[in-house]
From TrEMBL:
Pathway: Fermentation; pyruvate fermentation to lactate; (S)-lactate from pyruvate: step 1/1. Coiled coil: none annotated. GO terms for biological process: glycolytic process; lactate metabolic process. Allosterically activated by fructose 1,6-bisphosphate (FBP). Residues 12-149 form the Lactate/malate dehydrogenase N-terminal domain. Residues 1-28 form the signal peptide. It catalyses: (S)-lactate + NAD(+) = pyruvate + NADH + H(+). GO terms for cellular component: cytoplasm. This is L-lactate dehydrogenase. InterPro entries: L-lactate/malate_DH, L-lactate_DH, L-lactate_DH_AS, Lactate/malate_DH_C, Lactate/malate_DH_N, Lactate_DH/Glyco_Ohase_4_C, NAD(P)-bd_dom_sf. Keywords: Allosteric enzyme, Cytoplasm, NAD, Oxidoreductase, Phosphoprotein, Signal. Substrate binds at Q89, R95, N127, P128, V129, D130, D155, T156, A157, R158, T237. Belongs to the LDH/MDH superfamily. LDH family. It comes from Dorea formicigenerans.
Length: 320
């Protein structure tokens, strides 16, 4: 080991960006017991400091963790850096509308991290998350397993919650994924959806629901529009994503090898290459381990390719 090499602290997390999403994520991470140290970084240092003070006052109710506002030197030895910095959607804006602003923000953040010889996992949360994960991957030069996006982990949670409600069953017993873009072209992978191993439509019949097409179309639409609905009412979404961040960090820190629809680089799966989007993936200590080839119908594969094309055209335009 060279003299200056950073030794990773496997119990340390850094959150870059302490707005609604960053502070809610930090609050969830504080309660998780996964970490013993958390540094909060924001362009507005006072904001990070205020959040660190506030969140640390909850520590006596959970497990010991040191929480403080810091700068990029403080994240060098973190196991995970969560990036939530960036402009958020305003009412009526799509996630893709944020692309230019947030790529520029990433051009200032990622080189700062790389300079510190950070050895851990980059978890991208800012939107458009797929485009920014791709950007972070290219700017950092890190191996693809170390740069992951929260992807459709949140959308998938929304889908499970809706289905659980519809079928009056624990949402944890629902196995279904949203794949593709975290955004308007996302796809509900109905063909592989099941409740504790029972194909979704059979389970629906059992529960007295017979209009499968109508119900699934309505649920998928509700899930897709969740963020718009929330932003219209309260200006931002942050609790659901905070729990998603906590869940992904848990899978990494505990090397759980959980299957989560994080966004990662596609490498020829379903004919899709050089674009980041979400597919169910094994997540553990190395970050992304491998994709899980769930069965998709022809229509779902077509929709996935369309989602990839949408993302590619935004990337091409953004990187021109
Ligand atoms: P916010 O409340 O405006 O917070 C953004 C924070 O980033 C502010 O505190 C800024 O000071 C800070 N910031 C801006 N530039 C920099 C910089 N260069 N360095 C450090 N800090 C900086 O936004 P909010 O927290 O609501 O949203 C943050 C991002 O998360 C947005 O891009 C959202 O669209 C995105 N979300 C992603 C979700 C997902 O599922 N992936 C879900 C919800 C929101």
């Amino acid at each position: 080991m060279s003299k200056n090499e950073v030794v990773m602290n496997p119990r340390k997390v850094a959150v870059v960006g302490c707005g609604f999403v960053g502070s809610a994520s930090a609050f969830a991470l504080m309660q998780s017991g996964l970490f013993s140290e958390m540094v909060l970084i924001d362009a507005n240092f006072e904001k990070a400091e205020g959040e660190a003070f506030d969140i640390s006052h909850g520590v006596p109710f959970t497990r010991p963790i040191k929480i403080y506002a810091g700068d990029y030197d403080d994240l060098a030895d973190a196991a995970i850096v969560v990036i939530t910095a960036g402009a958020a959607q305003k009412p009526g804006e799509t996630r893709l509308d944020l692309v230019h602003k947030n790529i520029n923000i990433f051009k200032s953040i990622i080189p700062e991290i790389v300079k510190r010889d950070f050895q851990g996992i980059l978890l991208i949360v800012a939107n458009p998350v797929d485009i920014l994960t791709y950007t972070a991957l290219k700017l950092s030069g890190y191996a693809p397993n170390r740069v992951i996006g929260s992807g459709t982990v949140l959308d998938t949670a929304r889908l499970k919650e809706r289905l659980g409600e519809h079928l009056e069953v624990d949402s944890r017993s629902v196995h279904a994924f949203i794949v593709g873009e975290h955004g308007d072209s996302e796809i509900a992978a109905w063909s592989s959806a099941n409740v504790s191993g029972i194909p979704l439509h059979d389970f629906c019949e059992m529960r007295g629901h017979h209009d499968h097409e109508g119900a699934t179309a309505e649920i998928a639409e509700k899930v897709k529009n969740s963020a718009y609905e929330i932003i219209q009412r309260k200006g931002a979404t942050y609790y659901g994503i905070a729990m998603s961040v906590k869940r992904i960090c848990e899978a990494i820190i505990r090397d759980e090898r959980s299957i989560l629809p994080i966004s990662t680089m596609m490498d020829g799966e379903y004919g899709i290459k050089d674009v980041v989007l979400s597919m169910p993936s094994i997540v553990g200590a190395e970050g992304f381990i491998s994709k899980v080839p769930i069965s998709l119908s022809e229509d779902e594969i077509k929709a996935l390719n369309k989602s990839a094309e949408t993302l590619k055209s935004v990337l091409e335009e953004a990187l021109e």
